[in-house]
Design brief:
With about 140 residues, this protein is mainly alpha-helical. It has helices spanning about 1-20, 40-55, 80-85, 90-100, 120-130, and strands spanning about 20-25, 30. The protein contains five helices and two strands. A hairpin with a 6-residue loop joins strand 1 (about 20-25) and strand 2.
Length: about 140
């Protein structure tokens, strides 16, 4: 049980670390996944998915990312057509912004408040929707 708790905490720490911006020592500018500038939202959404979501949800969206093994409950499988039909875009947005615990889901899902009001949030919803029915 203690080993499982350590694995969960490690996965959560990894996930949270992916959400922190990096500051360049040479230029003093902020870069990384939580940068304050918003380039092309759709392309950025795919990049955000790779850095923030893939560790748990996997590249294929099946909930089989490298951190998923240590998580209970397992991350959402975005390829499930029944789930896709049952959830509204607004629900996906809330989960992304506020994290799982805030919407009655897994507390392992971190919040991403830096995306509030940014086009990348809508882009991430599109990315999640693109997995529907893929095997």
């Amino acid at each position: 049980m203690r080993q499982r708790a350590v694995l969960v905490m490690a996965a959560l720490a990894f996930s949270l670390a992916c959400n922190k911006p990096e500051q360049s020592k040479a230029t003093g500018t902020t870069t990384g996944t939580a940068a304050t500038t918003a380039p092309a939202a759709e392309g950025d959404a795919h990049e955000l998915f790779k850095t923030r979501c893939v560790p748990c949800h996997g590249e294929s969206g099946k909930g089989d990312g490298p951190g998923a093994a240590a998580l209970n409950p397992k991350p959402r499988n975005y390829t499930d057509p029944k789930w896709q039909e049952s959830v509204k875009d607004e629900d996906i947005k809330k989960t992304i912004l506020y994290g799982g615990a805030a919407v009655g889901k897994s507390p392992n899902m971190p919040a991403n408040p830096d995306l509030d009001g940014k086009p990348e949030l809508d882009g991430l919803v599109k990315v999640v929707r693109e997995f529907k029915g893929k095997s």
